[in-house]
Write a structure and sequence with these properties.
This protein has about 130 residues and is mainly α. It has one domain.
């Protein structure tokens, strides 16, 4: 009995270590994909696109240094680039969410298997107690 407790304690400590490693790995991935650094970059990219579009429209519409149709075409092109960038960013987020859900499903399956093993052990212990007459 004492050996089983020691064994289960060692297994529990191993599970805790594995959980901590997994948690650190997830933190690193979150930082790479959707961390504050990317939010800051997105903010700068949004401001840059807005400034460029405004400059092009001002040069074409107010100062007439470039034809108005050209400024509109450049503006539409820049907005199209921005939409493509936003789609790419959303694609990264969707991939990350899929990865997280897959990882959770895998862990749930592992936990379910472990739970079944524990239930079998408990049933075995109960049967041993019944056989001993306790």
């Amino acid at each position: 009995m004492e050996e089983q407790q020691r064994l289960s304690r060692e297994e529990l400590e191993k599970e805790v270590k594995d959980f901590r490693k997994e948690k650190e790995r997830v933190r690193k991935i979150i930082g790479q994909i959707g961390g504050k650094r990317n939010l800051q970059n997105d903010k700068y990219i949004n401001i840059l696109f807005l400034i460029i579009v405004l400059i092009v429209f001002i040069l074409g519409g107010i100062f007439h240094t470039i034809p108005i149709t050209l400024s509109l075409e450049i503006g539409v092109f820049l907005v199209s680039l921005k939409v493509a960038y936003m789609i790419n960013s959303q694609e990264k987020v969707n991939h990350f969410q899929f990865w997280i859900l897959t990882s959770l499903e895998f862990r749930l399956n592992e936990i379910s298997k472990n739970l079944k093993k524990v239930e079998k052990r408990l049933e075995k212990i109960d049967f041993e107690k019944i056989d001993k007459g306790e």
